UniProtKB/TrEMBL annotation:
Pfam families to which the protein is assigned, alphabetical: STAS
Domain STAS stretches: 6-117
UniProt organism field: Terrabacter tumescens
PROSITE patterns given in the database record: STAS
SUPFAM superfamilies xrefs: SpoIIaa-like
PANTHER family: RSBT ANTAGONIST PROTEIN RSBS (PTHR33745:SF1), RSBT ANTAGONIST PROTEIN RSBS-RELATED (PTHR33745)
Entry protein name: Anti-sigma factor antagonist
Amino acid sequence: MNGGPALVSIMRQGSTLIASVHTALDDSQLVRFEHDLVDQIGEHRSRGVIIDVAALDVIDSFAALTLRRIAEMARLRGALTVVVGIQPEVAFTMVRLGMGTGDVPTALDLEEGLALLAAHAPRARSGTSTDTSNGYP
């Protein structure tokens, strides 16, 4: 790296990773971000991921595809991903161009993203066993 300002920061809050994209990323930087984030999901045993794109004034087709891929990889690793902070103009353009986030949940901001993850968190059920060590539910 060149020692300049961070393009993306990834922080952990409990079992949630919060990744903030601070500036537009080129395709190679997006791929690096994807790999770093997916690696950290396993390293920290994360159950939720929030990707904050509020600083972006453009989300191109490759960026939208990368967000969907990250969410799918995170899901396969046991984490739910929420994209937050899509600017109104960006949302308008994405819809006009037929791009979207697919099945990836979105929220207005970080606070709503955390609330969405909390609402989807698995809850322990009293009186029921969750032991599946024998391979059967």
